[in-house]
Amino acid sequence: xxxxxxxxxxxxxxxxxxxxxxxxxxxxxxxxxxxxxxxxxxxxxxxxxxxxxxxxxxxxxxxxxxxxxxxxxxxxxxxxxxxxxxxxxxxxxxxxxxxxxxxxxxxxxxxxxxxxxxxxxxxxxxxxxxxxxxxxxxxxxxxxxxxxxxxxxxxxxxxxxxxxxxxxxxxxxxxxxxxxxxxxxxxxxxxxxxxxxxxxxxxxxxxxxxxxxxxxxxxxxxxxxxxxxxxxxxxxxxxxxxxx
Amino acid sequence: xxxxxxxxxxxxxxxxxxxxxxxxxxxxxxxxxxxxxxxxxxxxxxxxxxxxxxxxxxxxxxxxxxxxxxxxxxxxxxxxxxxxxxxxxxxxxxxxxxxxxxxxxxxxxxxxxxxxxxxxxxxxxxxxxxxxxxxxxxxxxxxxxxxxxxxxxxxxxxxxxxxxxxxxxxxxxxxxxxxxxxxxxxxxxxxxxxxxxxxxxxxxxxxxxxxxxxxxxxxxxxxxxxxxxxxxxxxxxxxxxxxxxxxxxxxxxxxxxxxxxxxxxxxxxxxxxxxxxxxxxxxxxxxxxxxxxxxxxxxxxxxxxxxxxxxxxxxxxxxxxxxxxxxxxxxxxxxxxxxxxxxxxxx
Lengths: 244, 347
Prior knowledge:
By secondary structure, chain A is an alpha/beta fold. Helices cover about 40% and strands about 25% of the residues of chain A.
């Protein structure tokens, strides 16, 4: 039975308070191996805060986070990253002053790899994300959508076990959005993902199981079609755009 | 790995350094060489900050603390031991440990930006206050009296390791100082282009991303800061033995501010820049002080203002840009001429 397997990520009663504000409220969340999960919810629903609790950027006020059964609650960001949790943040976190190639090389080089292994990963990732032509450009000079792709490449170069993507398609052209959706599907052949996204068209392209966040808590967890049909979800989030 | 152009530039700089190291003692006026020794020592100090600030992105406003600790450690040890071998080791060790301890609290306490500047500055000023108030005879470490604001006089000159009677003469000390400057420069160049240096640069560029990739940001910064403290200490030790005297002003705000100016004026992103700016500005200051027509400090301040306004990235980066621009112009001119020649040929 699937539920008896150790989940890739499991949170138990995860809570994050900032003063009186409860940004993440008693979240029980499970991600299975090789799953692709979409996380949706209105602004301020706690999606990004939830991600930051998973990666150790925030220390949860209560509850636990487990990665393949290991308790990683309160572990340092770099320790969690070394276990194999890769994240693309909402506002791209890239090395602005360096060129694209060096950005990816730095991601690939951690953990005592040989030079040829690193070179192979860099080349492979540049191809997969389709930014080989930008390899020598300084990241600061790129457009927002291109920087998003660079960050995606950085995350892939770290060869993570699970990838968290926070609004990967924001600021992208239609063509870039489609490419990103294709890349996500391709990544999911080997790696589990959690994707936070606002763009419903984009979510429809990739989604299977969707988790809806509302006011810091999980409102609903269901397949995409069911989520779209749910009246409460429509009211709080999807609104007229989908109803129409 | 360094890029080829970078490798050539480094080799050229080293060659110039070696020529000066062996040539100047033969041909130059000994007094001039001794004057230059001081500037070479200060250039090592400038490099220490160029690494901490330029590579590690750590704005240290109290680099003088480590310079001073190196100097005092050397002075106290040399007076007690009667041999400078152990004193040299302590001049590296004491400031490195101090930097490691201070760095531990700053980086593991997640201090950043301007707070780092304030804490390092206050650290230096506290030592300044402390040493200043040790003038009484009760303040001594072994045979060495700390001397408070009077400083420590009669610091022995360097001797050949293990042979206290074999002391270096001033010209040999010049060669040693310049040799160390070249060595520190080369080591920093290699470090900067190594994997470790590139990780340090990554941390400077974006700490969050570096941590999310699995790099321990705090540890990387601690290493950079400790290494910088050690190099500053090396310069401090040389300074103490060169002057045969040291006083608490090495811990003063002026000392730490001067080194910031050298690094800024020379070019934060380079190692050659801070060396050139340090030695150059010292000579300018000396020249201005000799000509008493106008207040030298005012003129020096004016020069610095012009430098910062006209060359915001520093002297060496500006020269590099100029060189690239000129080469580009020459190429364009050359191409235009060959095209004209081709057209003439066709006609």
